[in-house]
Amino acid sequence: MSEQLREVERASAEDEHTWTEQIEIAGSELVERTKELIEEGNVRRLIFRTPDDEKLLEVPLTAGVVVGGAFTLIAPVLAALGAMAALLARVKVEIVRTERKAKAPPNPQ
Q1: Would you kindly state where each structural domain of the chain is located, as residue ranges?
Q2: Digit-coded pLDDT (tens) for 29-62
Q3: How much is the pTM?
């Protein structure tokens, strides 16, 4: 049974495409923009940095974090972001996204 689990985990990791992007936003927009990113659903990790690229906070997200109004689970993170936003004029946000690779259609031969 453990071999089956490993095979499924390996298959799901191979079926996903991961990429990162970086945006710079005003501190006053930090909490609202973070909520928007989380609602998109394909964001797996958010890394908040100062304009000098010093890491402030790293937030791992699971696939279903928004399902069922689960914003209560990340409320403490949003509160911390609000406190950071009050102290910083600009914040860099590194966004790590994943997307399932499209499966190739079967050969009709």
Answers
A1: 12-100
A2: 998 998 888 888 788 899 999 999 999 989 888 7
A3: 0.70
